[in-house]
Amino acid sequence: MADSDRIWEKFLPHNYQQIVSRLVGPPLSCSSKKELFAALCKPLLIDDGNKMFYIEKRRGKICYMLSARELSITFGNTPLYWSWKHVQGSKFAEAAELRTIWWLEIKGTINIEMLSPKTTYKAYLKVKIADRAYGLDLLPSEVSIEVGDCKSCEKVYIHSHCKRNAKSSCDCECDDEWLEIELGSFYTESVQVQEVRMCLKEVEGVHLKGGLIIDGIELRPVC
């Protein structure tokens, strides 16, 4: 058993003990490192249910998801503009639904030390489009990833009707009723950079928009 544990511990994330200590609910009951690895391959809520963690079974790479409550949403605490409620299929207790606004800006940050080292990641904003949605496609939104002095920006459209077999030019990847809007990619190499900053915004237009439902930002290693 001891030899087996030493082998399986090599497949566990470098910070697995810290992650396990942040789990929501009763502690994991694992009699071996192999069982612990299998348990961590399933999505688990951490940090009072505001983040989700799991590891890739094939490579043992860390995956994270920040809930909408963990994001900085401009005017997010103003009921006139945003409402908070449970949404079917959401990974978390609450999602944020845009009621109406002209300044759309959603930001997220994560400490790079929480991710697997020397790994390329992509960040995705997970959203739904409500039936009553309006104004989301009139102008493109800017998505960006910032790591230290390096920043990548692109313009994307939030599609109101994204099909499973969407054209390759579509900026959203579909998963049932949820959409994934790619914010960009980055590499976890620098030990000097502590934070990754992610953003989607559309602040140039003066038109109102609404009906965008935010589940959170998911970070996954690139295959």
Please tell me the overall pLDDT: 88
- What's the number of extended β-strand segments? 14
Q: Largest sheet at a glance?
A: 9 strands, antiparallel
Count the DSSP helices. 3
Oligomer: single chain
Enumerate the spans where pLDDT stays under 50 for 5 or more consecutive residues.
160-170
CATH classification class of the largest domain: Mainly Beta
What percent of the residues sit in helical stretches (DSSP H or I)?
under 10%
In CATH terms, what is the fold-level topology of the largest domain?
A: Jelly Rolls
Number of domains: 2
- Inertia-based shape: globular
Structural class: mainly beta
CATH homologous superfamily identity of the largest domain: Galactose-binding domain-like
Order of helices and strands: HHHEEEEEEEEEEEEEE
Distance between the termini: 32 Å
What is the CA-based Rg, rounded?
A: 19 Å
Proportion of residues in β-strands = 35-45%
CATH architecture of the largest domain: Sandwich
Provide a compact summary of the structure:
By secondary structure, the protein is mostly beta strands. The protein is built from three helices and 14 strands. InterPro entries: PP2-like (IPR025886).
Structural features, described:
The chain has helices at residues 2-9, 16-21, 33-40, and strands spanning 44-46, 51-55, 62-67, 72-73, 82-85, 95-98, 104-111, 120-134, 141-147, 150-156, 172-175, 178-187, 195-202, 210-221. 10% of the residues lie in helices and 43% in strands. It has three helices and 14 strands. The two termini are 32 Å apart. The longest helix has 8 residues, at 2-9. The model is unreliable at 160-170 (pLDDT under 50). It is globular and about 60 Å long.
